[in-house]
Design brief:
Order of helices and strands: EHHHHEHEHEEHEEHHEEEEEEEEEH
Number of strands: 16
Largest sheet: 6 strands, antiparallel
Radius of gyration: 21 Å
Strand content: 25-35%
Number of helices: 10
Shape: elongated
Structural class: alpha/beta
């Protein structure tokens, strides 16, 4: 697949499964509805567009990964001269009907195909590249690679990416409820020990919400992405991290989440998926320690975090952590996986 970086951090062939089966899962009404019903996400985009109509007035816009067409219609209502909605799945056929039903076919053209292959009828470049292609844990689904390609192929040199920046964070959390559910449960199942199931469960990066009271440490910035300049070979990465404990507590898991910024807006406009923010469909990803560990205020958990593409569209985190504190110690060296299908069934 030509839009997946083939380097030390990527491997596997996923094209047949993903494009022939998984990709068209986007056609499912329940998947589209779950994203549209995420009012934090949908209203944030709506307000960012409507509150900055001066950016869209009389401009040519590409809505990359347009889905149901909601962002394309926001852009049209904000005064865009022309909107190209690009959708690789069969959903494009339904989205055209949505656009027509809302009387916007004279502004919005829905193009079915991959951004690597399509051409824009009557235009070479666009003024604004609008997108919502962030996956769980930000880089799941592999669509950010296509965003870079869309930028390079279609955005004018002085064009605007909307949004244009993401920041990926990690912190340590108290997570007894979910650690018990995913790990401790297997220690005694109707009188039987199922350690092998626990080991399999530990290898998942679990997609679920965490509350503002759960972080035990500060947040560490793993990666800052500026999509104006980011290259394909910069999406996957390895980063050290250092998490300072802000109280005495028990750490069960590490949590990963991200921010999204619209720098072109007239006022600072940032959507957070962190524990302190209103919940979104992205929630957070948590990676469980093998066993909980007691920590004291001021102690630091240090380690290394690697993000990789797994089987093309899925996500792999490699985490190494070696902690020795006054109240406890732990050593973690594990690969964690978040799979495409888990987005739909959790």
């Amino acid at each position: 697949m030509d839009n997946i970086v083939q380097n030390d951090f990527t491997y596997g062939e996923h094209d047949d499964h993903f494009f022939n089966q998984g990709f068209n899962a986007y056609c499912r009404p329940d998947i589209q509805q779950s994203m549209l019903e995420d009012e934090v996400r949908t209203c944030f985009y709506r307000d960012a567009i409507y509150n900055n109509k001066h950016l869209f007035k009389d401009k040519v816009v590409m809505d990359f990964g347009c889905g149901s067409g909601i962002l394309s219609m926001f852009a049209a209502k904000a005064g865009a001269k022309k909107v190209f909605g690009v959708e690789a799945s069969d959903l494009a056929k339904t989205t055209r009907k949505n656009v027509k039903k809302n009387g916007l076919s004279h502004i919005i053209t829905i193009l079915e195909g991959k951004v690597e292959e399509i051409e824009l009828p009557g235009e070479d470049k666009v003024d604004i590249l609008l997108s919502e292609v962030m996956g769980v844990g930000l880089i799941h689904e592999g669509t950010l690679q296509s965003l870079v390609i869309a930028r390079d192929r279609f955005l004018k040199p002085d064009g605007i990416l909307f949004p244009d920046k993401n920041t990926l964070y990690i912190c340590a959390i108290e997570d007894k409820k979910m650690h018990d559910k995913h790990v401790s449960y297997w220690k005694n199942v109707n009188g039987f020990e199922m350690k092998a199931m626990a080991e399999a469960s530990k290898a998942y990066a679990w997609h679920h919400p965490i509350g503002p009271q759960q972080p035990v440490t500060d947040y560490y910035t793993l990666r800052e992405y500026d999509w104006n300049t980011c290259r394909l070979d910069e999406i996957f990465f390895t980063s050290p991290f250092k998490l300072k404990c802000n109280r005495k507590d028990t750490v069960h898991s590490l949590a990963v989440f991200f921010d999204c910024e619209f720098s072109a807006c007239s006022t600072k406009t940032v959507l957070s998926t962190g524990p302190e923010a209103p919940m979104t469909h992205w929630m957070q990803l948590t990676c469980h320690l093998d066993e909980p560990v007691e920590v004291d205020k001021g102690e630091e958990l240090e380690g290394t975090f690697t993000a990789k593409a797994y089987n093309g569209r899925d996500l792999q985190f490699d985490i190494d952590l070696d902690f020795k504190g006054t109240l406890g110690s732990t050593n973690l060296s594990r690969e964690f996986y978040y799979y495409w299908s888990m987005s739909f069934w959790e």
